[in-house]
Amino acid sequence: MSYDILSTLQERESTFSKGQKRIARYITEAYDKAAFMTANRLGKTVGVSESTVVRFAVDLGFDGYPSMQKAMQEMVLNRLTSVQRIEVANDRIGNQDVVSLVLRSDMEKIRQTEETVSREEFSAAVNAILKAKRVYILGVRSVEPLANFLGYYLNYMFNNVHVVSGFGAGEMFEKIVGVNSSDVVIAFSFPRYSSTTTKGAQYCRSAGATVIGITDSKLSPLGSNCDHVLVAKSDMVSLVDSLVAPLSIVNALIVAIAARKEKELSQTFANLERIWEEYDVYEKRVEG
Q1: What is the mean pLDDT, run by run of 10 residues, along the chain of 288 residues?
Q2: How many helices (H) and strands (E) does the chain have?
């Protein structure tokens, strides 16, 4: 559902039963915690049965509790402060094994991304990058490593790659002021969404550049300002933004582009191997 669930709860309050009012009150007052609770746990927290929670979700128009939970999570992820993130994460983890919890969550996000990302959008993005005169990569704050990683490999394939990261809005515009219709801009943004990246994407698109967004939704602030959107599922784990799935999309882009430039890359790396060997760039392999 696209509407704000808090507004719906307020509008429907007079129609709720006693148990439903307890659920609604808890969600309204502690939505940051409720969004990450199972139906069973939410029921125990407010003193109603799990089935009451499930019926409550259906009564609100959802096809079940998971759909309502997803709507709550989408609503709150961009609202959580760093302190709230820690509190929610600790509440979710409880006594569970942290390693297993995080790895399983990451694997699930990769699975969801495989099912979600549009192959047509992916192919269009690859074609646009291959045709571009210049490639700009925008990524600030926690997604800066993604921008740098992509830039590192694209620099082997293209002569005009610019990574724009770690800048404020003013400095970013100074770096992208010359963007035009022959350029491609690849931008990264995940909750909590950077307004700097969104503004940069808006400017580049208005200048005629093809903008490719790697974000968690077509409806995200960045997604709505892009020509092509590669949806990669992200998750919040305490202070850490899980960017495993977005990195997999970056890897896929690099592999697809490299396959299209195989002959050129073979020559480039043949030259590089000679240089690396001559100047001892890498440690020699130790046999035995």
Answers
A1: 68 90 90 85 94 94 89 70 61 72 86 93 98 96 93 94 83 92 96 88 96 91 94 71 91 96 87 86 73
A2: 14, 7
